[in-house]
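Recap from last week: sequence in, structure out.
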Amino acid sequence: MFVSWRANVRYNLYRQTRKKLANQLFFAKPVFVSGCMEVNKMMTEMHSVRMLDVHPQRIYEAADFAEVQNQQRGAASKSLESIMDRVQSLVETTCNDVQKKVKTCEEDLNNTNQETQLHYGRKRSAFTDSKKGKSMAQLREEHAERVRDLKLAQREASMLTDFIRLVDYMCTE
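Predicted structure tokens:
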């Protein structure tokens, strides 16, 4: 009996930890997954940019070597700037998507509230009873689902600052 109780306690702790991670991880949120993967791909591209142009078989004069390195640094600077511009546009796109999702969920919830008020507010007659729309239970379920969606969207919107900070850390690494 003690063994099964202990196993249940451990399993409940595991479930709580899993739920907490699922709520906080960017890779567990569909909105952030593609952005994180793209940023990671851009960072590997950034790491592959050559900063120095050194050929061991070639003998350089000091002035020639400095000129070749300046040209290489200029080319590397342009490619790094283009990568950072793409990262910035990706972060802006992700932020806009999350904000649109919150706005859409709020509008859906407001529309549902108006529908519910119209449904409950209209007078009953033989005509309206024969053309019933949705049951009260179905309206409640839809309302609860929209409230859940709104809370999820707001939670994702609150994660935007952490997402931006993560991308910044990845870029400066």
